Amino acid sequence: MQYTFIALVENKPGVLNRVASLFRRRNFNIESLAVGRTENTDVSRMTVVVNCPNGDVDAHKIEANLYKLVNVIDVQDVTHQPTVTRDLALIKVKVGPERRPEVHNLVSIFVHG
User: Fold this and answer.
1) Which distant-in-sequence residues (6+ apart) come within 8 Å of 20 by Cβ?
2) 73 in helix, strand or coil?
3) Which of 2, 33, 48, 71 could cross-link 10 (Cys pair, CB 3.0–4.6 Å)?
C-alpha cells in the first residue's frame, strides 16, 4: 500500500539527499517526491509517497526514522486524510502561424480560471 508523508525540514543543502538516503538504506521505493519552500524561507516541505509492503508497521518505522534525522522538524503521515491529486504535463508543440489559433482553441478547453 502507498503511504504519504509530509516532512518539514530545514532548508539547507544536503537535506534532500539525507532523506532520500534514509529510504534507500531501509529498502523503500519512493513513488513520488515533491519539495518546496514554505512561507518561512528557512523551512521546506517535503511530500513523499512510498510503497509500504507491510502497511502500518513500515509506515511507523519510516516516520520514526525521519524524526531521527537532524534537519527534520516535523513529520506527518497523511495517508488516510482527504486529498486532492493533480497531474501536470508540459507539452511542446511545433506549429506554424496559420494553425496557432486552432491549437490555442484546443488548449483553452483545459485551462481553468
Assistant:
1) 30, 33
2) strand
3) 71
